[in-house]
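REVIEWER CHECKLIST
Item 1: Sequence provided? yes
Item 2: Single chain? yes
Item 3: Sequence as submitted:
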Amino acid sequence: KPGSVLSVEALEKMMEDPTVQKMVYP
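Item 4: Structure as written out by the authors:
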């Protein structure tokens, strides 16, 4: 499914974001 692949890529980009990392790992 192209949509699921896109979601994984978007998720990986989000996890690279320092702001997201602070929210996920306080």
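Item 5: Key structural point noted by reviewer: The chain has two helices and no strands.
Item 6: Recommendation: ____
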